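Worked Example 4.2. Consider the chain below.
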Amino acid sequence: MITAPQLKAARALLGIDQRALAEAAGLSLPTIQRMESSDGTVRGNVDSLVKLIEALDTLGIEVIGAGAASQGGGRGVRLKG
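Applying the procedure from the previous section yields the following structure tokens:
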């Protein structure tokens, strides 16, 4: 899925704050704050996680999971080309 550091990095790449991401995902600001304060993998109900990933995708972020093809290896995020 997505880790808290990936979520923070995605927001940084997009230049948006937590409130803007919450609005884009149709989630509350406290939900985004809770997700970003998670240790490791972001926790939340399935519906919220799906909304988050779909919003990041729509905003132009590709989430790179563990074991996915990436030149440097490991997890990460990148802007879609």
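The mean pLDDT is 89. The chain has one domain: 4-79. Compare this with Example 4.1 before moving on.
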